[in-house]
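Recap from last week: sequence in, structure out.
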Amino acid sequence: MRDPAGSAARAVLVRAARLSAVLAVLVTPVRAAGPAEAKAWLAAIERSPDLQKKLDAAVDALLARNPQLRPENVRLSVIDLDPSGRPKIADRNGDRPTYPASVVKFVYLMAAFAWKDQEKLEIDATLDRDLREMTYASSNDATQRVVARLTGTSPGPELSPEAYREFRDRRLMVKRWLATLGIEQLHAMHPTYNGNGDLYGRDRQLLQDGSIPGGLPAKPGEYPNRQAMTANETARLLALLATDRALSPASSAEVRERMRRDSRKQPHLVHRIAGGARRCDASLEIVAKTGTWGPIYADAGFVRNAAGDSFVLAAFIDSKPPYRGSFIADLTLRLSQELLGCDGAAR
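Predicted structure tokens:
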């Protein structure tokens, strides 16, 4: 736990810095962060034995209380964004890829604002509505429209080999952008589907393309080019978002606002990051995106207090029968107590 007096002093400094930042925006052009800067910062993230010890203790205790879950069911990554030192990381199965369900939607939200920063995309009223529906309501229909706008593609029947090559290349645009930031293990090239006939033709053609590296390892009967994310890479991208290193400051702030969560307004989040953080301190800033599908129960985001202390958590649970309990919220509560110094009662 950090020194409360130090946190209070930092809170004063952070408020002053935020005022200075607002004034600076009035006279300074908004600049998108450069990929080299993002890569260098990610490379400086340190493995922390102390943070690993805290994570292991919390996870082992929670697994003991959730007998349905085994250690191999959880993929977790935590990055401590302590403003007084270098960022630190710890994980459990953090490099094992998993199907992300709707967590991937925050990647497309970030990509839209990256395209805006690069003057490749205008976020008009239609796209703005789709981004909000994709992020807040987690609409799959909106996600399909967003991916189409980002990549200049459209659904339809299967394509000829030549046309398919262009379609495939365009659908790799988000993944190529992530690679420029130093994010290599997020395989994000598909929208999400409802399962009501919206997956067909060229979209199915792409999912069946096993020649594209990075897809989720396929079991018999599964598509070989499914979406795939690791907890560590998810956390690293969120850390860039939290620190304005993937997008311009204005775009970073807009993305964070769209991902802001409050379990009082969204009661279904009580067992996710938002619910756990609120149990610790109702004033904490919570930015996150959940995902639920079949055996997947997931959430990824960051939590920040008024002093500027913050941590990123990416949590993917993959279990059969499907788990829908409070593991993620309980872990968030414990990490908030350890890293942010709030005093909510653990359960």
